[in-house]
């Protein structure tokens, strides 16, 4: 038997190397002050025009006669269907008893969101891609190295080759830094998850057009700008194994896991797919499926046309929220250790009932008609926070391949005992960023908005040092 | 702001106290040599008779006209429905491409399986209950302190009070040692999970009839006997936070989590509930629903009659496997550290595609008709292992409230390189028991058979010291 074949279960040096990259704001490849020019150059190379079109002008997409579901004739990509969500009251759950219908995107295939990392001058750099997505307000943002579904990268569907995919799958791939299935938007997707990967390259890596190497410190600076780091990048970055600097927390890890278990148990939720044309409260017009009172989101269609003749255009449906969102963590220091207030959220599309979201995750327009006492907890605290309380702020886009103009103002807001007491209300808990980093190694704990906010927290923490 | 309100994230003293209890084989309350008499006395107090009956004699249960599903008129308990499971081949998954129908139990309500612990003479003791379940071959076995659904313990359905439930739910409950939602049998249940809890009592605890305090060392001795520690006890025991004595492993934790993610990604599985009377390959008779070739399991009905007039009888359906099962871990030492070979299993009822099972988990009769090369991997290695290779063996029952005569021979079998190479075949991985203990803090990693085997491994490890 060979000897010394064991490894340590935890590789502490990875955390140290990530910390060094986060502390390095001068990259070996591209200076941050030159990044804007580089992205503008990429934007000139890829001119795209995205236009709203009526559903009738969608190519290959149609409403299925028997269900009203919006489907592609190939059976690929995704479908827009209906969802019926019910939440029980006593004795099966403690509610709130709820019952609603909504359109939902069903895309069962798991994709890879992967960032390749490699040391230059002894510092880890991250390979990021300037990528166009039709729903982004500025179209081109920084995506992970790879963003691909399995049928994409196994090439069975005659797609273009997926660049760098060989570093993430197959026998010759690199050293795994993180690899976890994470949920996507539970209010818009039915049980969708993607494989979030960070892989360290072994050996030389060619640098292709549209790609650039950045340190984590540079990426964190860019995370302070609006609409630069796309959602897929943010969720992958949130999965980085940051070192745990503080071992103290209000709740022990056992208590935190128990609280999550309790939240999952007390909510008894059923979600059943139904035909889209049987969804009450929503109406289908020529160019949009929308809620009768104009709330939540619309299903719309766009055409994408490329200025570059080498790339052909396409048409597709997108979900468009009715207004900008606000996504925020309230934060407080306890015994000098920063904590954030997480919210155990039920979203109809979650696989496992409840995931942890930020303190606030709302489209304020959906609640503007309500009296103050019926508005979501902590929303007004966040909306009213003065600049002296704001520790982080930037506007980010949700996944631009599925969502149109889905902008969220992402905030970290310092709270005091009057805003948010030590004893969190039911459904909320104070946790440390280190505890979030432990949870995000596993799927179905942090929703995609909480993962965006964790990436922003990590970016803000470095900025404050 | 109050100071010193933080806790350490991990409480190392709990692991030490569990180790002390495991090392203590003399209990403060009941000696192990007297345990058999105590259980026999309980058995005399509760005489039950369980008889097979035709479906027509079920009271309150009937086959729904529109679906053929077996349901209770109250809408409570559980239903027997049909399940259609498909697994894709390329490009969505790498298979095996599969497509089958089967009956399945749907019981959406989450139950509590909870063991109360308390120190006597400085040693943790576990409060176990002698409980009758109609499917157990010997009827009475040791269950956790509490085994109850939410609608049971919220008493909304006029059930008898659930003893000791106040230690597990509500504001006055004890200190949480473990609390995690775990899956049940994915081949027999549709997405069923139970809350596995270990809670330390604060203050005095009355000792009621049918209950006894045992040290973990005593329980581990009883785990070496056949049909004593019931399935619910075994799964809760597997969730105990044992200390991690060894920090080395063949795979780092990051690699292990990545392997699980990869297994979940490469299997593209859909499971849809269908009407029971539309399930091909299964036939319904007067007294059983069975597979046309006599494989897998039967759905049958029983009546339970109590000798004690204070308790009324009842009737219910049960699932009965066609033969005894074999559940086994192959084990090898690498660099002196014991590892076991886990198998990433697809079971139709899993919430999240794949969970880790033991090396072998089969009803050998289902495969007896196959030539050797088509029989499940490692099954023959386990069946042929001589006594010198067997590190643990006992026959245990699966959940006797749902399964009739569902016996599994549970084995830990020492393997060599010829049996099981260092480089595990696809779908298998070598992991340490300490890594399993880390995984089982979270749901959906270890299936119920792997959790039984982890409890047995921990029992065997103490026995060998």
Protein described:
Two copies of one chain form a homodimer. Helix content of chain A is 19%, strand content 35%. Chain A is α+β, with helices and mostly antiparallel strands and 465 residues long. Among the domains of chain A are: 13-47 and 109-238, EvaA sugar 2,3-dehydratase subunit (Nucleoside Triphosphate Pyrophosphohydrolase); 253-270 and 322-460, Nucleoside Triphosphate Pyrophosphohydrolase, CATH 3.90.79.40. In chain A, strands 7, 8, 9, 10, 11, 12 and 13 form a seven-stranded mixed β-sheet that branches. In chain A, strands 20, 21, 22, 23, 24, 25 and 26 form a seven-stranded mixed β-sheet that branches. In chain A, strands 2, 16, 17, 18 and 19 form a five-stranded antiparallel β-sheet that branches. In chain A, a hairpin with a 7-residue loop joins β18 and β19. In chain A, α4 (216-222) packs across α9 (448-464) and α5 (231-238) packs across α9. The termini of chain A are far apart. The model of chain A has no long low-confidence stretch (mean pLDDT 93). Chains A and B meet through β1, β11, β14 and α6 of A and β1, β11, β14 and α6 of B. Chains A, B: DTDP-4-dehydro-6-deoxy-alpha-D-glucose 1 binds at residues 61, 149-153, 232, 399-402. Chains A, B: This is NDP-hexose 2,3-dehydratase family protein.
């Amino acid at each position: 038997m060979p000897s010394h074949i064991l490894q340590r279960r935890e590789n502490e040096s990875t955390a140290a190397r990530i910390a060094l990259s986060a502390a390095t704001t001068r990259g070996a490849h591209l200076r941050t002050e030159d990044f804007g020019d580089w992205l503008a150059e990429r934007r000139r190379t890829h001119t795209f025009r995205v236009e709203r079109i009526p559903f009738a002008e969608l190519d290959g997409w149609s409403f299925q006669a028997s269900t009203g579901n919006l489907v592609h004739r190939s059976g690929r990509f995704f479908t827009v269907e209906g969802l019926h969500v019910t939440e029980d009251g006593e004795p099966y759950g403690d509610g709130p008893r709820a019952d609603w219908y909504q359109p939902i995107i069903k895309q069962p295939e798991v994709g890879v969101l992967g960032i390749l990392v490699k040391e230059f001058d002894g510092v880890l750099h991250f390979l990021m891609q300037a990528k166009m997505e039709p729903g982004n307000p500025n179209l081109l943002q920084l995506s992970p190295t790879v963003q691909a579904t399995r049928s994409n990268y196994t090439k069975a569907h005659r797609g273009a080759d997926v660049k760098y995919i060989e570093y993430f799958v197959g026998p010759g791939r690199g050293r795994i830094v993180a690899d976890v299935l994470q949920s996507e938007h539970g209010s818009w997707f039915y049980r969708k998850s993607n494989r979030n990967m960070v892989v360290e390259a072994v050996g030389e890596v060619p640098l292709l057009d549209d790609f650039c190497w950045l340190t984590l410190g540079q990426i964190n600076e860019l995370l302070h700008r609006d609409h630069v780091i796309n959602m897929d990048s943010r969720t992958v970055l949130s999965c980085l194994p940051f070192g745990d600097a503080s071992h103290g927390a209000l709740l022990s890890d056992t208590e935190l896991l128990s609280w999550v278990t309790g939240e999952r148990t007390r909510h008894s939720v059923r979600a059943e797919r139904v035909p889209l044309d049987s969804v009450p409260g929503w109406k289908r017009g020529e160019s949009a499926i929308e809620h009768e009172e104009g709330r939540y989101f619309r299903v719309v269609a766009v055409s994408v046309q490329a200025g570059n003749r080498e790339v052909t255009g396409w048409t597709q449906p997108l979900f468009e929220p009715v207004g900008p969102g606000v996504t925020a963590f309230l934060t407080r220091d306890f015994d000098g250790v920063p904590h954030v207030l997480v919210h155990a959220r039920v979203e109809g599309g979650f696989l496992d009932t409840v995931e942890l979201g930020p303190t606030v995750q709302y489209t304020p327009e959906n609640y503007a008609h309500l009296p103050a006492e019926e508005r979501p907890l902590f929303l007004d605290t966040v909306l009213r926070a003065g600049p002296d309380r704001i520790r982080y702020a930037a506007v980010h886009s949700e996944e631009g391949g599925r969502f149109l103009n889905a902008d969220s103002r992402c905030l970290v807001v310092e709270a005091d005992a009057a805003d948010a007491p030590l004893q969190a209300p039911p459904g909320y808990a104070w946790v440390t960023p280190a505890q979030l980093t432990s949870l995000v190694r596993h799927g179905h704990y942090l929703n995609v908005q909480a993962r965006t906010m964790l990436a922003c927290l990590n970016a803000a923490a470095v900025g404050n040092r």
